[in-house]
Structure to design on (415 residues):
């Protein structure tokens, strides 16, 4: 089977879900395409005086259920096809966890590794000024994603506020000092753990006896690792872009965090075996968590995955061909659109707090997040069981049905 592009792959999963609910062909056509795709030039003055002319994108997939919502990533592979795919995933994700948002995504095709803070700030401000006319507190609300963080959101918020007045609700994942929500930074990891725990309970799997391997040690991977370690679950393998480490009796997560903080290679961890990223995915373990980039589980390696559960923390880590192989092999895949939705649930809480000018405690944030994630899992798992389909197909069906219902009520094709 030829390698599908990210958007082609997302479309395969979308059509599988749509088929399960017998979605009308014309709604399939509407929902298979983006509402709006904005491509902009981002000229970046580098510290050495030279000019880097990058491409940036904001794709708004669908807003039938609420304002467009989705992160912004800085990555060389964040081209229009990838951003388009990620925007559509956001539409299904926000619907699956039933938050009142649509789906969007943004990206700049740059490698920010080694860029100074001043260069990143100029990049962010320049990009914001090129796309701010399509953003809005009730229109389109960005958030962090790969290689962007709370500081980047602060610059985005400031640049937007220079044009439109003080607008903390224009982004989520902001620093707490600017109206960010305590709990948001760890929300994706916390949501992953809640979903994994709900799955384990249903499958009579004792989480404390499982071994977990995580690819990616950024916001999502590291927060999940911290929470798993705190829950007594053994994290036996971890990697970042430069490779990883393995220890059959469990890794010292606090020590790994200290290395990551100092930007030192993870393989400097004493007593652990260095491992490359391709091998990491095939390590002996119970639960494999891709938490870095898309397209890492493919037809080429799906038969070598030793885990019995794949918890998709990254977006679109599994190709459709790999998904079928894993299913045939009895490997349970807990899909991205459900598993990693804790981030957008947390973003919804933050946005709701901003527009009400009210702040929750971290405890309330975490409790409501966990409840929402467990309920969303239960809803998807019930449909999967009733229809005898994998969790991914059921999750898409749940999301698509909600978006389609809203689109119909609003009259998606009425003049
Ligand atoms: P991040 O930039 O904080 O971290 C990314 C991590 O992946 C880093 O450790 C990096 O070294 C590693 N990495 C990059 N390229 C790699 C490679 N080729 N092999 C192995 N590791 C590699 O990003 P993040 O926010 O943690 O996002 C990770 C994934 O989770 C992305 O797919 C993102 O879309 C998804 N996600 C993020 C959020 C969120 O709230 N941040 C929410 C939902 C989903």
């Amino acid at each position: 089977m030829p390698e599908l592009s990210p958007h082609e792959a997302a479309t395969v999963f979308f059509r599988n879900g749509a088929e399960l609910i017998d979605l009308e062909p014309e709604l399939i056509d509407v929902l298979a395409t983006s509402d709006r795709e904005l491509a902009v030039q981002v000229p970046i003055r580098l510290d050495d005086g030279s000019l880097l002319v990058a491409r940036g994108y904001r794709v708004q997939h669908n807003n039938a259920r609420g304002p467009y919502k989705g992160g912004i990533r800085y990555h060389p592979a964040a081209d229009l096809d990838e951003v388009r795919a990620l925007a559509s995933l956001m539409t299904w994700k926000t619907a699956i966890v039933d938050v009142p948002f649509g789906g969007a995504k943004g990206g700049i095709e740059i490698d920010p590794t080694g860029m100074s803070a001043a260069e990143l700030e100029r990049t962010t401000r320049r990009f914001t000024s090129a796309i701010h006319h399509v953003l809005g507190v009730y229109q389109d609300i960005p958030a962090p994603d790969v290689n962007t963080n709370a500081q980047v959101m602060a610059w985005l918020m400031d640049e937007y506020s220079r044009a439109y007045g003080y607008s903390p609700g224009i982004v989520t994942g902001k620093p707490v000092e600017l109206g960010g929500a305590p709990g948001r930074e760890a929300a994706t990891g916390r949501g992953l753990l809640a979903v994994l725990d709900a799955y384990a309970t249903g499958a009579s799997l004792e989480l404390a006896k499982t071994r977990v391997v995580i690819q990616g040690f950024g916001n999502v991977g590291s927060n999940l690792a911290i929470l798993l370690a705190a829950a007594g679950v053994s994290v036996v393998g971890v990697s970042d872009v430069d490779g990883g480490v393995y220890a059959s009796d469990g890794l010292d997560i606090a020590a790994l965090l200290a290395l990551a903080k100092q930007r030192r290679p993870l393989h400097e961890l004493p007593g652990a075996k260095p491992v490359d990223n391709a091998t990491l995915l095939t390590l002996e373990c119970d639960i494999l968590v891709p938490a870095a980039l898309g397209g890492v589980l493919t037809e080429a390696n799906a038969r070598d995955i030793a885990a019995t559960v794949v918890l998709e923390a990254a977006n679109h880590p599994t190709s459709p061909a790999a998904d079928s192989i894993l299913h045939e092999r009895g490997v349970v895949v807990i899909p991205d659109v459900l598993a990693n939705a804790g981030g957008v649930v947390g973003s919804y809480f933050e946005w709701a707090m901003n527009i009400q000018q009210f702040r929750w405690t971290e405890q309330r944030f975490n409790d409501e997040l966990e409840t929402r994630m467990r309920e969303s899992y239960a809803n998807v798992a019930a449909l999967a069981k009733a229809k005898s389909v994998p969790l991914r197909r059921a999750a898409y069906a749940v999301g698509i049905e909600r978006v389609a219902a809203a689109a119909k009520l609003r009259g998606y094709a009425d003049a």
Summary: DSSP finds 14 helices and twelve strands in the chain. Residues 144-147, 188, 215-221, 239-241, 277, 291-293, 313-315, 340, 343 surround nicotinamide-adenine-dinucleotide (CB under 6 Å). The two ends are 42 Å apart (CA to CA). The mean pLDDT is 97.
